[in-house]
Design brief:
Elements: E1 5-10, H1 16-26, E2 30-35, H2 39-45, H3 57-64, E3 69-72, H4 75-81, E4 84-87, H5 107-119, E5 124-128, H6 136-144, E6 153-157, H7 167-172, E7 177-181, H8 185-198, E8 207-211, H9 212-243, H10 247-255, H11 276-289, H12 293-320, E9 329-333, H13 348-358, E10 362-366, H14 371-378, E11 384-387, H15 390-394, E12 399-402, H16 414-419, E13 426-429, H17 436-442, E14 445-447
Parallel strand pairs: 1-2, 1-4, 2-3, 4-5, 5-6, 7-8, 9-10, 9-12, 10-11, 12-13, 13-14
Helix pairs in contact: 1-3, 4-5, 9-11, 9-12, 11-12, 12-13
């Protein structure tokens, strides 16, 4: 079969990896390659132990790897041989200089743009896949246009709307595919070529075309709105605990309103992941740069409520455990920021565990998929122990803190866990995952989010 498009993705992480795997699966006539400067990451992509966990990803990679899906560190060659280049490099929050703590750090993005310019000998379509500030495509276009007439470039924005844990399903059955293009003849033609790739499995009615700036901003706004719903219900959970209301009942009552809907109304210890906080802070910075301080303050509060929820959870643990956790074992069930992923970036568990360690607690962590990431995040710290078996993690513990909503935790034998714990035994359910009444009946003191605690004293 002749190759119709030669597709390259620069950045083989949580976005680039699954996206390119699905494109290779659905477009056997395309040659798809992922490149990255991280040699160990590429080695893992070429092994049986992929660097990220997503349900269904392993099977897709193994079916297509070596056929039309390839992984390499040779970025220059990949650029030279490609027709369409997806840019999926990291754009973290700046930690230095102007905009530190809010603005996106675009140094890797700019280095990539200059690499593309340096290694290109023929015309290319460059697709923004990373989450970027609005107007970034314009800067990309200026960089790529500075190299003379050897190659011409068309810049598109194609933001991802993936939820970790369901990324493969989101790619195979997207709510929409957003394509942003320049309003020029070349821009529309480039958009047509990219759309044709997605049309191999996505109905054309779900492919939305906008100008490039609307596409860039839509990604930030989508994450801001989702995080806003989580912070909204979490703020109400604090009120529920003071008034004997039940946040689950409140969420169900308002979620049945068709104008509101039930999604993202599960109260918990707070949101995490690589996108929500970063994108909101980026949005805040952009608003302040445009003199929209009231708008910036509004979105800043979404992040503040999230931090408040982390702090409140730990403060409640300390207060209920007789105002000290020093020397006490705390079994932490779940460290990934959500179920069905191994990603721990910005996980509430990081804050909770570090605060407990600061109180001289002994933290025993179990997670079915994220222990490698936990080792990188907390490994070597005094007081931290990692366990593959949650029963071992809970042995001799004074309390359990459930921080990730893994379905497997519902199936645990909590009588066995209780029997091996110190008494009184405390259970802090940071995801409202478990049957609290049943746990109380067998002897636990149970502390849900947004509900009345169930105590034996």
């Amino acid at each position: 079969m002749s190759v119709k498009e030669r597709i390259l993705c620069i950045g083989a992480g949580y976005v680039g990896g699954p996206t390119m795997a699905v494109i290779a699966e659905k477009c056997p006539h395309c040659r798809v390659e992922l490149v990255d400067v991280n040699e160990e990451r590429i080695r893992q992509w070429n092994s049986d132990d992929l660097p990220i966990y997503e349900a269904g990803l392993d099977e897709i990679v193994k079916r297509n790897r070596g056929k039309n899906l390839f992984f390499s560190t040779d970025i220059g060659r990949g650029i030279d041989e490609s027709d369409i280049i997806f840019v999926s490099v990291n754009t973290p929050t700046k930690t230095f200089g102007q905009g530190a703590g809010q603005a996106a750090d675009l140094q890797y993005w700019e280095k990539t743009a200059r690499q593309i310019l340096r290694h290109s000998r023929n015309d290319k379509i460059v697709v923004e896949k990373s989450t970027l500030p609005v107007l970034t495509a314009e800067a990309m276009d200026r960089i790529l246009s500075s190299g003379g007439d050897d190659a011409q470039f068309d810049v598109l924005s194609n933001p991802e709307f993936l939820a970790e844990g369901t990324a493969i399903r989101d790619l195979l059955e997207p709510d929409r595919v957003l394509l942003g293009r320049m309003d020029t003849e070349r821009g529309h033609a480039a958009c047509d070529r990219l759309s044709a790739i997605y049309e191999n499995w996505v109905d054309r009615s779900r492919i939305l075309r906008t100008n490039v700036w609307s596409a860039e901003l839509s990604k930030l706004v989508a994450n801001a709105f989702l995080a806003q719903r989580i912070s909204s219900i979490n703020s109400i959970s604090a009120l529920c605990e003071k008034t004997k209301a039940d946040v689950t009942e409140v969420a169900r009552a308002i979620g049945l309103d068709s104008r509101i809907g039930p999604r993202f109304l599960n109260a918990g210890v707070g949101f995490g992941g690589s996108c929500f906080k970063k994108d909101i802070l980026n949005l805040v910075y952009i608003c302040r740069q445009q003199g929209l301080n009231e708008v910036a303050d509004y979105w800043q509060q979404v992040v503040r409520i999230n931090v408040y929820q982390h702090d409140r959870f730990v403060a409640n643990m300390i207060a209920e455990m007789f105002n000290t956790v020093a020397g006490k074992k705390i079994a932490v069930l779940g460290f990934a920021f959500k179920a069905n992923t191994g990603d721990t970036r910005e996980s509430p568990a990081i804050t909770v565990c570090r605060r407990l360690l600061a109180e001289n607690a002994l933290v025993h962590i179990a997670d079915p998929k994220a222990l490698r990431q936990v080792e990188a995040e907390l490994g070597g710290l005094d007081g931290v122990s990692l366990f593959e078996d949650p029963y071992e993690a809970a042995e001799g513990a004074h309390a359990i803190a459930l921080l990730t909503d893994w379905a497997c935790y519902r199936e645990l034998n909590f009588q066995r866990i209780l029997d091996a714990m110190e008494k009184p035994a405390f259970l802090f359910d940071g995801r409202n995952l478990l049957d609290h009444r049943a746990l109380y009946k067998i002897g636990f003191n149970v502390y849900p989010i947004g509900k009345t605690p169930l105590r034996h004293f």
